[in-house]
């Protein structure tokens, strides 16, 4: 059996940074400006695999691999209240299923890895948004808690980019500039 390094080698042309994968092309804005960490642009892999956008499944933006943890990260340059629950859930379901297929094709044993799904959204700046973000802090949003409870993913994080940056440094001892 192969390991995740085979996947990394196979898709090396899709290596990227948090800056590139957090780019919001509708607003010409980066949610995270960090270029120090190597990540995989998972959206690009899916675009390559499915050139016809009519049949292309939804996918998360970024794959960050740390030991046996696979962080599937979706960046949303929106307030939490503007984010569609069904879209975020589709990105998790379709994205993970596609990743599993890619692993199986490379003979990588999927059950050796834990999937973590992160939805990172923009910082709340308006007073009424800060109140809502304060109440929701630490709570799994977008009806994603069921995927953690049923074991589809090991853990789900939904929070703003500042939280993501702090947690990244706390867990990986690497500083992110977002």
3D structure, described in words:
With 178 residues, this protein is α/β, with parallel strands linked by helices. It has seven helices and eight strands; from the N terminus they run αβαβββαββαβααβα. The strands form two sheets. It has a six-stranded mixed sheet, with helices on both faces. Strands 2-3 form a two-stranded antiparallel sheet. It starts with a helix and ends in a 6-residue tail after the last helix.
What is the terminal separation in angstroms?
Answer: 37 Å
Strand order of the largest sheet: 1-4-5-6-7-8
Order of helices and strands: HEHEEEHEEHEHHEH
| Count of individual beta strands | 8
Structural class: alpha/beta
Low-pLDDT regions: none
Helix content: 25-40%
Number of H/I helices: 7
Strand content: 15-25%
Question: Rough shape?
Answer: globular
User: Major β-sheet, in short?
Assistant: 6 strands, mixed
As a whole number of angstroms, the C-alpha radius of gyration is 16 Å
How many domains comprise the coordinates? 1
What is the mean predicted local confidence, pLDDT? 89
